[in-house]
Amino acid sequence: MAKLSLMFQNKLVKEVPIGNRPVGIGRSPDNDLPVDNLAVSNHHARVYFEAGRLIVEDLDSLNGTFVNDLRVERATLHDGDSIWIGKHHIKVDASGDAPIPVETRRKTSAPSINETMVLDTKERRNMLQQAAAMGERSQFAGGRLRMPTITVLGGNSDQKEYLITNKLTVIGKSKMATIKLRGWFKPELAAQINQRDDGYYLGPGTKTPHVNGKPIQGSVRLNDGDIIEVCGLRLNFMFRE
Amino acid sequence: MQIVSGGVTDVGRVRSNNEDCFRIVEPLHLFVLADGMGGEAHGEIASAMAVETVVKHCYEGNNNPATTLYGAPKPAWSDKTKRLCSAVHLANSKILQSAQEHPEQKGMGATLTAAWIDGNCLSISHVGDSRAYLLRGGSLQQLTCDHSLVAEQVRHGILSAVEAERSEMQSVLLRALGSEPQIEIDTEEHALFARDILLLCSDGLTRMVIEPEIAGTLQVEPDANRAANKLVELANDAGGADNITVIVVRIGAVSKGWFSWLRPGARRNAGNGSGGK
């Protein structure tokens, strides 16, 4: 198992293993790895696994977190790296096996039905209905399909309302965009909406859209009633029966 | 638009035969990938037949637009999209027909995901659980939906995405080429933008490697072929439970623009007149 060793003046102070939970580092005693020094913030940094990689994240500490002499806000750690916090130094030992985080565990568990098979239409309906009967959410049983729509609340676009049918809906000035922006200096691709199995995701194009007043980071899942703002356009995302 | 592509197929770490098949037709900018199923060597036959048929039909349609169109294409589609959808219908009939003529091939089938790029228009036709993704704006946008039981359950809110990925029923498909005479084919058109990266892959990749890792690999590795190989390597490192096939297509920047001649490489392209579109 991977571990962190807290060193002070080349002496080992404490060792902690890195499990599935993040390891908190800081001056406050509730940290997994407390560092008793005034130069260290109460909650200074944390170390955790993400997608099989070991990550260190600075928690807005006053004096900063350094990995191999570089100040970092967030960095991937490798075996043998050193994290410096104040005058303390934490050795990273990532040689052991990483604990299998939830995200990667699902990928490594091979499906038990190994051969791919196809259900015919009748079998398929039966199975889906059975599954629906078992499932607590009975959306399927009612057979209602909710259509996602975008209503334009403000700004210059070619229509007032759009039904989202494509896997990928482009918002921009491009001729092939579904939601067409009008006006000078508007980007070809401002943002995009991706239909996935579990919902609709808004992603950035050359602009970062805002959802409910906040800029998005990466792709975000849209909820019924969300307000999207991009390039002077105000859009309302809604599901219609 | 400048298009650079690379592809690779690998048997994986567990299986003894490779039932995946892919083809890159550079002059047409046509990319086809199929994952076969069926006992003995029949999965290989089905996937190869699917890929061959699609490529051949698209070639014919490209040379002679009057070639018969199969299925019921939407009038709004471009000619290439109509042709591509028609090709998938034809592949379905070919596989069924072959299975009827050769009783030992009964039950063979294939998934198929095909992409055809014409200027800035991307046509996708798809049946089964292979996938097409577009890396744009730093994240993977999925262009196809899996025609699998678990994916259908997620769409209906019966399973969550995480539950689906742990399900034992992942290999149960609802649609595949060769299963029924009339099949529904998902066909769509998308706009392409400079610096987009298109990825076609079989489920051997997506079941072993998580999406952020796929996205990261595509972003880091500028060479299409090397990126495809890297992805296969990742899937094998994770266990390689199934055959892995990957096609990576990089859409280059459009070289037209007011100051485009200032960009590196523009002069060389201008010299022989072969740069971009």
Short summary of the structure?
The complex is a heterodimer of chains A (241) and B (277). By secondary structure, chain A is mainly β. Helix content of chain A is 10%, strand content 42%.
Shape of chain A: elongated
Largest sheet: number of strands, sense, barrel closure of chain B: 5 strands, antiparallel
Distance between the termini of chain B: 5 Å
- Radius of gyration of CA atoms of chain B, rounded to a whole number: 19 Å
Structural class by SSE content of chain B: alpha+beta
Q: Which oligomeric state applies?
A: heterodimer
Strand order of the largest sheet of chain A: 2-1-11-10-7-8
Low-confidence stretches of chain B at least 5 residues in length (pLDDT < 50)?
269-277
- What series of H and E elements makes up the topology of chain B? EEEHHEEEEHHEEEHHHEH
Rg from alpha-carbon coordinates of chain A? 25 Å
Q: Mind describing the biggest β-sheet of chain A?
A: 6 strands, antiparallel
Describe this structure in words.
The complex is a heterodimer of chains A (241) and B (277). Chain A is mainly beta. Chain A is 10% helix and 42% strand. Chain A has helices at 102-108, 121-134, 139-142, and strands spanning 3-8, 11-17, 23-26, 33-34, 45-50, 53-58, 65-67, 70-72, 74-77, 82-85, 88-93, 117-118, 147-154, 161-163, 168-172, 179-180, 191-196, 199-204, 210-211, 214-215, 220-221, 227-230, 233-240. Residues 100-112 and 135-143 of chain A have low confidence and may be disordered. Chain B is an alpha+beta fold and 277 residues long. Chain B is 34% helix and 25% strand. Chain B contains 8 helices and 11 strands. Chain B has helices at residues 42-63, 79-101, 149-155, 161-166, 203-206, 211-220, 224-237, 266-272, and strands at residues 3-10, 20-25, 30-37, 109-118, 121-127, 131-136, 139-142, 172-173, 186-191, 197-201, 244-251. In chain B, the strands form 2 sheets. A 5-stranded antiparallel sheet of chain B has the order 1-11-10-6-7. A 5-stranded antiparallel sheet of chain B has the order 2-3-4-5-9, with helices on one face. In chain B, a hairpin with a 4-residue loop joins strand 2 (20-25) and strand 3 (30-37). The interface between A and B is large, with 54 and 61 residues.
